[in-house]
Each structure stands twice: as C-alpha cells, then as structure tokens.
Amino acid sequence: MAVDDIRIKKSLRYSVLDGTFAASMIGFGESFFMAFAILLGATNIQIAVLGALPHTLGSFSQLFSERLIRAFRSRKRLVTTGSLMQALVFVPISAVVLLGSARIFSLILFLCLFRVFGMVIGPAWNSWMGDLTDERERGRYFGRRNKITGFSSFASFFLAGYILHGFSDGFDSEYTGFVLIFALAFFSRLVSFSYLSKKYEPFYEVTEEKVEGLVEFVRKSSSNNWGLFYLYLGIMNFSVWVSAPFFTPYMLKDLELGYLAYTFITASAIVVKFLSMPVWGRAVDQYGARKVLSLAGFLMPVVPLLWSFSTDVVYLIVVEAYSGLIWGAFEIAAFTFVFDTTEPRKRVAFIGYSNVINGAAVLAGAIAGGIIVKYNSLFWSNYLIVFVLSFVLRLSASMVFIPRIREVRIVEEIPYTRLFLKVISVMPTMGLIYGLVPFAKKDRDGA
Fold first, then answer.
1. Of 141, 270, 302, 422, which sits 20 to 30 A from 92 (CA to CA)?
2. Do residues 309 and 391 touch, judged by C-beta distance below 8 A?
3. For residues 270 and 280, what is the distance between their CA atoms, to the nearest angstrom?
4. pLDDT at 2
5. What is the C-alpha to C-alpha distance for residues 163 and 180, in angstroms, rounded to an integer?
6. Distance in angstroms (rounded) separating the CA atoms of residues 86 and 113
7. If DSSP codes are grouped into helix, strand and coil, which group holds residue 84?
8. Which numeric CATH code is attached to 3-198+221-434?
9. Computed over its alpha carbons, how large is the radius of gyration of the chain?
C-alpha cells in the first residue's frame, strides 16, 4: 500500500476522533450558550441577536478563507490555528458575569469570536476532507463519522444538563454549573485540536488563481444546479431561524421546564440523529443526495408546527426525536451535495460564498423572528406565531426549489415512500449495531 494511502486511512480515523471531541465541545458548551444568556437576563431581541449575529459574522469571515489559506500556505495550519483559538475563547465567555451591566454585550462579542474562529476554517476543512475521502464512499464515511460524533454530542450534552440540574440552587450555583461545563468544553476542543494536528494533508497547490467573486456567484446562482442548491439552503436558513432562537426560551421561560426536562427534550433529537446518520449516509451513496434532500425537505418543515400542538414533555420528546431523524437526512444530504456539485478548485470559495448567503439569511430570519415575538399577542405564548410562520416558510422554500435541483451522479431509483420506510425499518438494527465499535478494522481502513 502506498505511503499516502496509509496516511489517508490514519487521517480518516483521526478525523473521527477530532470530530468526537469537537462534538463534545458543542455538547458541553455551544448547546448551552442560549441557556446561559437567559440566566444572565437576556431579552428576546438579545437572544435573537445572540443566536444569529455570531453565526452571520462567522459566515462572512469565510470570504477570507482563501486568503488565509494562502497566508498560512496550508489548509491544515489554518484549521489547527482556528480550532485552538476557538478553545481559548471559552475563558472570557465563562468570565462575562464579572462585567456587570455589559455582560450580555460582552457575551455576544465573545460568541462572535467563537463562531468566527470556528467557521473561518470551515471551507479549508471541507476542502481538506474532500481530498481525503473517496466520492464513492463519502456518504457512508460521513454517515458513520456523524453517528459517532453525534453520540459524543449526546453524551456530553446529557452530562452537561445533569451537571446544571445539580447546580440549580440560585444564580451563583447555576453560574458555577455553567463555568464547569464550559471548562469541559474547553478541554474537549483542546483534544480535538491535538487530533487535527496529527492528520495528514495531501498535496494542495496554493495558487493565486482567482475564481468568480461573490457578486458573480450570486448572479449565476439562479441559472445552474449548484446555484439553485445554495439559494435553497439560504432561504431555508432564513425560514428555520425565524423560529430557531426561541425554542430554548419557550421551554425555560414559558413552559418553566427545569434543565433536566430541557436536556431530555433536546437530547432526543441528538440521539435519533446520530442513530440515523449511517443509514442516511448509505442511502445518499445508493440513491443520491438529491433524493434524500428532497425527502427531508418536505418532511422537515412540519417540525416547528408540531411544537404548537401540546406542551406535554413526552409529546415534545417525540417531536424532537422526529426532528432529529429528518434533520439527520437533510444535513448529510446537503453536506454531500456540496462535494457532488462543486469543482475542487472552486470548493473553498464557493463554500465561503454559500455560507455568507446563509449567514445573512440567519441574521435576517432571527431578527424578523425577534421583532414578531416582541410585538405578537395572538397566542398564549408569544413564541407560537414564529413556529407557525417558520413552518409555512420552510414548506414554501422546498416547494419552489426542490423540483428544480437535479442529481449529478448516476444512482438507483427508489420511490420516496419506500425510501422512508426502508430507513425506518433498517435504523433500529443498523443504527444501533453498525459502527457500535467505532474503531474496528473496517473503520481503520477508511470504510
């Protein structure tokens, strides 16, 4: 076996380990940023800004990804530097309570830095992983990787919720709990950084060759397949983020749930998503990313609407389990479709442009949702109107764009109903058993 092949196979395993600890960082830290803001007294508008502005600035930072790769002369050096800086931001995030009346503003500022460091490396990481993975096995590899990282995210999230539940005796106690879980997030990202540093970077020629700019990218987007796909993601992000920042305050403020109930509801989505990922990944390889994306695109919009039917905790756990199943399909199909539709030499730039569009859509959606929540009085909870509106917008986006997006690979045909039933029937066995031992020989071989 060639030396490069051995390095690539080791790197694919290191990528699973890197992702496992990066997911732990999310479970311990990022998943509780909104709850932390609520503890600090953030208003609904501040929650909307806190949820969206960091994501938007992080997306816009990707416009500089190509320049940074040229400056670092390596995708790997850029990715490892960004991940280390992201870990260090947990220190000031944990200390914002010391800043008195400026603590919400400071929290938003530090979360913006956290997102920028994490997202500016995204196009470089995608390009790097595109070179390490075989297009014929990409869906299966990322499906299994996402399953393992999803389990890590679930376990860390559940542990963090349990820790917060044990520190729920007043503000000082709750704050201590948040500092503890943010410290665990900090150390998780450091371990992730160490595995990123071990990965092999195949030869990558850093050139000064220019691809079309953002304006040209947007101008062409409505007339070709990849452009329609990126526009669809942008409009879907707007539709999702009209409601996305408000599920946490709805649970913690309006429903007055404790951290343990909040954790169980949210964790149900995480656990079903990671169980379904390898199944959806294989479906993407066999039936195409477009088929899975289409199925998810029409099943996912109903999720926020379901939140308006009942406040029962068991019911909400079931709703979030359904959400995890469908979002697992949507995310892995969209992720794979990026590789299928984008030329390698343009991938870094186009992913950056797409994320700029998504970032602007996220901010616009969250601010629109925040204004609606502030001035709405139609229902017993101010949040319900944005749940209903998000359903309408999501469904409209899928109805307009999905029929116009084409599959780019030769794949097997299968009716949507049969595909969904096949995934549901296979998931209880394959989802639980396949990859139960994450680093068995098959995984070491990069399968």
1. 270
2. no
3. 15
4. 60
5. 8
6. 8
7. helix
8. 1.20.1250.20
9. 21
Angle at 434 between CA 428 and CA 437, to 5 degrees: 125
Percent of the chain, pLDDT > 70? 89
Q: CB–CB of 35/163 below 8 Å?
A: no
Distance CA 56, CA 51 (A): 9
254-257: long-range pairs with CB below 8 Å, 24+: 254/381, 254/383, 255/311, 257/313
DSSP string over 271-291: HHHHHHHHHHHHHHHHH-HHH
Which residues make Cβ contacts (< 8 Å) with residue 80, sequence separation at least 6?
193, 196, 197
The DSSP-derived string for 360-403 is: HHHHHHHHHHHHHHHH--SSSSTTHHHHHHHHHHHHHHHHHHGG
pLDDT of residue 282: 84
pLDDT class of 44 with cuts at 50, 70, 90: confident
Q: How far apart (Å, rounded) are the C-alpha atoms in residues 88 and 299?
A: 39
Convert the pLDDT of each residue in 279-317 to its tens digit.
Answer: 888 888 888 888 999 999 999 999 999 999 999 999 999
Indicate the pTM of the whole model: 0.72
Q: Which residues of 365-402 are buried (b: 16+ CB within 10 A; e: fewer)?
A: bbbbbbebbeeeeeeebbbbbbbbbbbebbbebbeebb
Signed CA dihedral, 413, 416, 418, 422: sign only: positive
Percent of the chain, pLDDT > 90? Answer: 38
Mean of the per-residue pLDDT values of the chain: 85
pLDDT attached to residue 381: 83
* Per-residue model confidence (pLDDT) at position 128: 85
Question: Could you give the angle at the alpha carbon of 348 between the alpha carbons of 191 and 111, nearest 5°?
Answer: 50
* Distance in angstroms (rounded) separating the CA atoms of residues 422 and 388: 30
Residue 354 amino acid letter: S
Residue 431: the pLDDT is 45
Residue with tokens 């008195």: 100
Residues 293, 408: contact at Cβ < 8 Å?
no
Say which range, 327-331, 363-367, 379-383, 414-418, has the weakest mean pLDDT.
Answer: 379-383
Buried b (16+ CB within 10 A) or exposed e, 261-296: bbbbbbbbbbbbbbbbbbbbbbbbbbbbbbbbbbbb
For residues 297 and 395, what is the distance between their CA atoms, to the nearest angstrom?
8
Quick one: pLDDT at residue 440? 38
Number of H helices, E strands in the chain: 22, 0
pLDDT at 443 over 60: no
| pLDDT category of residue 400 using cuts at 50, 70 and 90 | very high
DSSP assigned state of 120: T
